[in-house]
């Protein structure tokens, strides 16, 4: 397809190759390419589903869908380019902890995206720092909807996503839900504040045991007791005790940042691709 010109490869993974590219109007985009001959049919369907789902979403903190197309050999999705890369990369380069207000500003933007998804009855199923992108303006965007599901289509025992962010009920063979997304948000927030993944083990079996048995480490002492309490509520082993995304946005620690977002969004205008 001649509408986009590839600049360079960004990364290569199990589901395809990511390229930075420019549109015919000179706007930077990301192209996700899947070589059909190299993939199992299930993996191809994951990418098709991601394109279809992305095309139905419109939110300031979800990576913007641009286009997708398929040839006999290749399936391609064009998406908004986030110049700052992943939050995982940003965290790995930090030499000191985020200020509490800075961390909460990042977190509330992710929660706003998740609340939008849940309102549309979509479970993300893979919320983690790797799937949170940072734009050049500092705006945070949730991405990677390849394993996302409509709530009505989720089945018990269907485990997808980063195992280190699995909620306890998933470790027991339960099904994904809004509550498992909220647990993953708790893991993400802890990672953001401590600069280390919350749960880490050499094998998946050991990782699941760690999630079920190990206590949540305390935050660095520079963070408030209210913030630590918020994390513990998200990381409750009882799913019903975790706050829903819409409730979380009304939490005193987040609500002020949310008001600032509303003001910022009123002036946001997407680029023409």
From TrEMBL:
InterPro entries: Kinase-like_dom_sf (IPR011009), NEK_Ser/Thr_kinase_NIMA (IPR051131), Prot_kinase_dom (IPR000719), Tyr_kinase_AS (IPR008266). The keyword Repressor does not apply. Residues 4-254 form the Protein kinase domain. GO terms for molecular function: ATP binding; protein serine/threonine kinase activity. Keywords: ATP-binding, Kinase, Nucleotide-binding, Serine/threonine-protein kinase, Transferase. Pfam families: Pkinase (PF00069). Its EC number is 2.7.11.1. It comes from the Eukaryota. It catalyses: L-threonyl-[protein] + ATP = O-phospho-L-threonyl-[protein] + ADP + H(+); L-seryl-[protein] + ATP = O-phospho-L-seryl-[protein] + ADP + H(+). This is non-specific serine/threonine protein kinase. It comes from Lygus hesperus (Western plant bug). The gene is NEK8_1.
């Amino acid at each position: 397809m001649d509408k986009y010109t590839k600049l360079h490869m960004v990364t290569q993974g199990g589901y395809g190759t990511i390229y930075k590219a420019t549109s015919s109007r000179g706007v930077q985009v990301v192209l996700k390419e899947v070589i059909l001959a190299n993939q199992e049919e299930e993996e191809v369907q994951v990418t098709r589903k991601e394109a279809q789902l992305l095309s139905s979403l419109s939110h300031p903190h979800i990576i913007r869908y641009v286009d997708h197309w398929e040839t006999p050999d290749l399936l391609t999705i064009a998406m908004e380019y986030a110049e700052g890369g992943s939050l995982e990369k940003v965290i790995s380069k930090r030499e000191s902890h985020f200020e509490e207000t800075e961390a909460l500003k990042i977190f509330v933007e992710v929660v706003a995206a998740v609340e939008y998804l849940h309102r549309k009855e979509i479970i993300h199923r893979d919320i983690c720092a790797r799937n949170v992108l940072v734009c050049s303006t500092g705006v945070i965007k949730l991405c990677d909807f390849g394993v996302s599901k409509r709530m009505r289509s989720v089945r018990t025992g269907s485990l997808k996503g980063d195992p280190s962010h699995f909620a306890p009920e998933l470790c027991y063979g339960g099904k994904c839900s809004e509550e498992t997304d909220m647990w993953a948000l708790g893991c993400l927030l802890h990672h953001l504040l401590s600069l280390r993944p919350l749960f880490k083990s050499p094998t998946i079996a050991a990782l699941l045991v760690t999630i079920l048995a190990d206590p949540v480490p305390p935050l660095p002492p520079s963070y408030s007791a209210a913030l630590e309490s918020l994390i513990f509520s998200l990381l409750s082993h009882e799913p019903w005790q975790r706050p829903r995304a819409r409730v979380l946005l009304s939490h005193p620690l987040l609500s002020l940042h949310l008001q600032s977002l509303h003001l910022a969004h009123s002036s946001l205008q997407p680029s023409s691709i």
